[in-house]
Design brief:
554 residues; alpha/beta; flat; 50% helix
């Protein structure tokens, strides 16, 4: 019996109680929730339904809980119901009902854990969005791992998600990039405000290979060639690096397109219509202080140039006009000050900033080796890049390590820890269960042990304490996925997988799955193989949500 099925049983019992007592059934919720009690000794599940309904129907909570307990005690699959405190219901399932979950999971396969809790939401999720002036640095890599995992979680819970990379190909940073490439091509030092690192020389060389005549042009014309060709080369490399990291975007959006299509003018016109634009000192401003910003923001400078904030406004409006109800933007720790102005901007458009715009801030990441931070990339010169991280610990470990922690917490990634083939390496600990469950399946086939038909599955035989513990852990997965999606926390999935891995190891150590020697294959062996295979399904489903592989061998 799954938690959702048990919740339906609890509601059915409540309907019966209300009917017997002549109570108003409209007070009953459309659905309820059963949870794991903090103390396993209190039962398999707990319900607070009696407490929730007591005031609505004017019945003391313990009296209502007693009636519910009596009704639930007659339901198939319920072993016992105890009343605790002011009216909590502590429910124990019989072994057969609890064990049926293994069959449910195996038959559901990749669908187990998916739900429609966020159905109807159309979400635009923007993450990474690094400027095409250098390789993706380790802070951007964190958002690549977390953002991609979050997109998977949102889709697994029914949301309509569009992932997006905002390609900043306009503005002063691109001019500095072009000047740096030109200087490298000439064999000159990088400009004082330019970019360094071996990658600049590599791209400059590639541009010269494409355009052998580039240095024969005047500096202005040459710089424009390096700007166009260099940005294209850099962005191609960024996309390739992210693809190798397992991250693909639905949309790569060019900032330059906003300018070329006149969308900044359109955004300005819309903001004027809303009455929040004013002129001062020859510049055009947006009165964001009306909505809690610490100061008003310039949209267009007195010299006629657009500001970055104006592009932000146009880009937000573009997303909303593409039909997205909620715009989610992931930004680095140095962008915390953007939250107030962006929320105010959404309000200036007439949107609800709490419903239509969500900004997530990620904290810093350090790569650590021998107890000291790795500060310099061989190629980028000043930062640790995506390639540096993957070279150090691999794709799976990188994605798991970055997604394992709440994004609002700074983290140190210890190279020694994340490359170690031991239980203290979290990704190894979880992937080892994936491999072990697959190995058990292969070994079972060699000795003639198969699960058999689902109709012949004897769930009641899964009565050992460690079997029950594992079944409880497996039952948590759908709720973990739903909560992680709702709270934008892929780390909750990682931590759950580690708890599940521990439960499986304890089951494996205490409950023999395969027959010994010439021992006859029994229904208990088959039942335990169902449980083993159910664990592999959940481990694989959870790792897939994090973009991490579930190996069959290690």
């Amino acid at each position: 019996m799954t938690p959702a099925e048990l919740a339906e049983v609890v509601l059915s019992a409540a309907h019966a109680v209300f009917t017997d007592r002549g109570l108003d059934s409209s007070a009953l919720p459309a659905q309820t929730v059963v949870e794991r009690p903090r103390n396993p000794e209190h039962g398999d599940y707990a319900s607070t339904l009696a407490l929730q309904l007591s005031k609505k129907v004017g019945v003391p909570p313990r009296e209502l809980a007693t009636a519910l307990a009596e009704q639930l005690g007659r339901a198939p699959g319920i072993k016992s119901v105890e009343i605790a405190g002011p009216g909590f219901l502590n429910i124990r399932l019989d072994a057969a009902a609890a064990g049926q979950l293994a069959k449910v999971i195996v038959e559901a396969g990749p669908e187990y854990g998916r739900s429609d809790t966020l159905a109807g939401q159309k979400i635009n999720l923007e993450f990474v969005s690094a400027n095409p002036t250098g390789p993706v640095h380790i802070g951007g890599v964190r958002w690549a791992a977390v953002g991609d995992a979050l997109s998977r979680l949102l889709r697994a819970t029914g949301a309509d998600v569009g992932t997006e990379y905002y390609f900043n190909d306009a503005g002063s940073q691109i001019d500095r990039f072009a000047r740096s490439l030109l200087a490298a091509a000439k064999g000159e030092p990088a400009p004082e405000d330019g970019y360094g690192g071996a990658y600049i020389a590599e791209i400059a060389t590639e541009v010269r290979n494409r355009r052998p005549d580039v240095l024969e042009l005047g500096d202005d014309a040459a710089q424009e060639v390096f700007r166009v060709e260099g940005v294209q080369l850099m962005f191609t490399e960024i996309k390739s690096s992210l693809r190798d990291f397992g991250v693909e975007f639905d949309t790569y959006f060019n900032e330059k397109d906003l300018h070329d299509r006149g969308e900044l003018d359109q955004a300005l016109a819309r903001l004027r219509e809303q009455g929040h634009v004013f002129e001062s000192d020859g510049a055009t401003w947006l009165r964001t202080t009306d909505f809690g910003d610490d100061k008003d923001r310039v949209l267009r400078k007195s010299n006629g140039e657009w500001t970055y904030f104006a592009a932000d406004c146009a880009y937000y409006l573009d997303k909303r006009e593409r039909g997205f109800d909620r715009v989610v933007i992931m930004l680095g720790a140095d962008h915390h000050g953007y939250i107030g102005r962006m929320k105010a901007m959404a309000a200036c458009f007439g949107d609800d900033p709490e419903r239509n715009l969500e900004i997530l801030i990620g904290q810093l990441v350090n790569l650590v080796r021998d107890g000291a931070p790795v500060r310099m990339s061989k190629r980028a010169g000043t930062v640790v890049t995506l390639e540096d991280l993957v070279d150090a610990i691999g794709v799976d470990a990188s994605r798991y390590a970055l997604a394992r922690y709440s994004s609002d917490s700074p983290i140190d990634i210890d190279v020694e820890l994340w490359t170690r083939a031991t239980r203290d390496n979290p990704v190894y600990y979880v992937q080892y269960v994936a491999a072990r469950t697959a190995s058990v399946g292969r070994n079972a086939a060699e000795v003639g042990l198969t699960r058999g038909d689902a109709a012949d599955f004897h769930a009641e035989l899964l009565s050992h304490e460690k079997e029950n513990e594992l079944l409880k852990a497996l039952a948590e997965f759908p709720a973990v996925v739903a909560t992680a999606a709702e709270l934008r926390g892929p780390h909750q999935v990682a931590r759950y997988l580690e708890r599940l891995a521990g439960a499986y190891h304890r089951f494996y150590d205490n409950c023999r799955i395969l027959p010994r020697g010439d021992e006859e294959v029994t229904d208990l062996h088959r039942a335990r193989l169902w449980l083993n295979d159910a664990t592999r399904v959940v481990i694989a489903n959870g790792l897939r949500l994090l973009g991490v592989s579930a190996p069959e061998r290690m």
